[in-house]
Amino acid sequence: MLKLALTPRWLAGLLLALVFATGFMLLSRWQLGSASSHEVSADPAKEAVAPLTSVAAPLEPVLASEADTMVRTTGHYERDSSVLVSSRVKDGEHGYWVVARFVPDEQPDRAQGTFSVAVARGFTADGDPARIPAEPEGELTVIGRLVANEGPVSSEDSGDPRILGSAATAELTNTWQAPLYAAPVTADAEVPAGDRLPLDGRDHLTDAARLSAPDEGLVPIRAQQYTSDSLNWLNVFYAAEWVVFAGFALFLWWRMLADSHRRRQHPEEFFDPVPTAGEEGRIYYEQSTGRYFYYDAEAGQYYYFDDAAASTDLMR
């Protein structure tokens, strides 16, 4: 069979099968890449606290490459601006975020008017709007994580304007009647202006970070970078399918080669000659080449089973 496989016809067939198999394997690799493209890893560079204006800008969306970055900004809280955002969970406890409007001192040159930041100051289990902790007074530096924006969601307590269903900046803009940056910040530290910031030599937040009013039942949110190690199993299944197709392309070539070889060695298993007068219907074996041939009465000559005419001298 090796001798048959090395003929130009079968070598060309093998080359074609390899081309198909290679294409199928590339498609399988692409599907595997798509399956793992949903994985999100933490970026150490986002843990270094940076000025808010260097990460986000007014009137521009916060991209995935910018979300979850630790930022700082100095300014003041707008009095009586705090609202509750429902459907929050902290360490297994259901509750609310306390979100307040923070007005930075530094405004971008191209900003049209004064832009504020929605700051989630902390978590509380108390859903009574009358007991929302008051905003700290005076100049503060807020350090926290710039989290991805949320879509507007109606709250179960929609009858109270101080309880919202999400921390969507679009909804908060309408609530406060003030333009906002396109994503909220979850506060990890509120430091009086001029005081030493709780940062280490790499500008990472230290354990000394505190909120201004921890005694009012406000628990720091301590938001972490979003990570995900999930796989898209549908893409994994497609990748396995392409591997099967690649193997089938090679198997098909091998099976056709094996059938052709067996047809040459045992033509009686593949042909059912009809006995007639003379030589018609008989199968002959050529010992010098190991090939079988037969006589075609209509053509008046002998043929090998691969349709190449046999020399009539073989019968002499």
TrEMBL record:
Keyword hit for Acetylation: no
Membrane topology: Multi-pass membrane protein
GO CC terms in record: plasma membrane
UniProt keyword list: Cell membrane, Membrane, Transmembrane, Transmembrane helix
Keyword Cell membrane: yes
InterPro entries reported for this sequence: Surf1/Shy1
Localization (cell): Cell membrane
Transmembrane segments: 233-254
One family name in Pfam for this protein: SURF1
Highest taxon in the source lineage: Bacteria
Protein family according to the UniProt entry: Belongs to the SURF1 family.
Protein name, per record: SURF1-like protein
Species annotation: Rothia kristinae
